[in-house]
Amino acid sequence: MEVPEMDSTSVLVVGGGLVGLSASMFLAWRGVPTVLVERHPGSSPHPRAIGYTPRTMELFRAVGLGQRIPQSPPDFRLRRARVESLAGTWFEESAWTPGKPDAPVLEYSPCTGTALAQDRLEPILRERAVELGADIRLETELVRFEQDAEGVTAWLRERGGREYTLRAAYLIAADGHRSPIREALKIGRDGRGHMRTVRSVLFRAPLEEYLQAGVTQFQIEQPGFSAFLTTYGDGRWVLIFSDDEERDEGTLSALVRRAVGRSDLEVELITTGRWELSALIADRFSSGRVFLAGDAAHTLPPSRGGYGANTGIEDAHNLAWKLASVLSGASTPSLLDTYDAERRPIAWLRHQQIFARADYKADAAGTAGDARILDDDAMEFGQLYRSTAVLDASDTLPPAARPEQWAGQPGTRAPHAWVSDGDARRSTLDLLQQGWVLFAGDARWCAAVEQAERQPGLGLQCLRLGVDVWPLDADAFRESLGLGKEGASLIRPDGYVAWRSLDLPADAARVLTDALRRVSSAP
């Protein structure tokens, strides 16, 4: 009997969309052997997602993509208007988040977002993942898998018909909202559920003149005709119908012209789409050695907050450092339990926020409850993690707040500040994400780090403010961390605050060692 060929890797990623590619890239950047399989030969011809947030760009910047992905102007905001047609009457604009005139204007990030079509971004991620050492196998599908106490065995099939098995320590399911892997694990979902099935047509037309006002999304409202129109910023547009009706090319061309309001328009139809508008969150994000990420874990409808793809990309980032730490032996597998504990509440928070806002309020069906709308800076930079990988993030704290309201609260993203680097400057965020970092003002903390670093594999680095790090405004940065001159803040490899000490304890080495052991799940 012929024995099937056996391959092996540390992590198998199933699904080569934005989240799967991000996962393989983040893992490879941390030196984790990774294989990604994708059954299609490349990106979908229908671009789908387009907006990526400043936080997503921070993650991409850390792995060397800061210069490869063009970013939006600092003052860019996504604007939507209700119109009769592009060439017809424009009625009113609608905001994603109600304005808050009392909110301070602060710089929270070295990055802005980007408006780049998904089929333009995916090749950049794929190329970077390969550069970092990831093994990307297109036109390869997962047939089935089994897991045991030591790992996961996957049966794979190439488009040409060759079948083989691959053994991995862990598997990441980034295989979309229908996720055969999630179904095989019998993981249920909850949430608003299916709202409707919609159709779309992707087309190319010379419509740049209608973008001069800065509006890029248009709700078309005419007697007997309602649709949504938006641009991908590269000459391509998509018209979305809120029904599941099949239309031929002639009808589609006529409806595009109707939405634009011009009969003389030259229209090139590119492709059509059919997709489900739904909101569902998996009951759990992991099962044994298998982890759900992206749409496999949470399906969220397209929104101006970018709560779909961006949430999935940060899933991948959160999981990557934890897998790397466990696989290196620096952490016990219990660290992986914090993935579900941290990311599933974020998915639910964003689910609620979508239906609390005007864009989807009519579809809420009671889903949002009495959820208070949080401002964009809180949702983008101020979400809170609660898990065993964070100390002192109590249940009484809000799920998100603006960074200056947190002031370095454990469980939140470490703050951005500009620091001097010779004749140049860089962000404090550029000092993070490689490993564990302790920001401290007192030299005695660095002595404590030398003792705490005896835990193998954690690579804790002490950065003294005013010695190793020169913030352009030292007092403001210390305040953003919530520290006095003798305090210290412990930052995880994903840039989140794990623990802090407001002062210098008598036995700083013991206190730090205990905190680091607890939040890192060190053996």
TrEMBL record:
| FAD-binding domain mapped to chain residues | 9-349
Upper taxonomic lineage: Bacteria, Pseudomonadati, Myxococcota, Myxococcia, Myxococcales
Classification via InterPro entries? FAD-bd, FAD/NAD-bd_sf, RIFMO-like
Q: Which residues cross the membrane?
A: 12-29
UniProt name for this protein: 2,4-dichlorophenol 6-monooxygenase
UniProt keywords, alphabetically: FAD, Flavoprotein, Membrane, Transmembrane, Transmembrane helix
Output the SUPFAM superfamilies linked to this UniProt entry. Answer: FAD/NAD(P)-binding domain
Which metal ions or organic cofactors does this protein require, according to UniProt? FAD
Q: Specify the superkingdom.
A: Bacteria
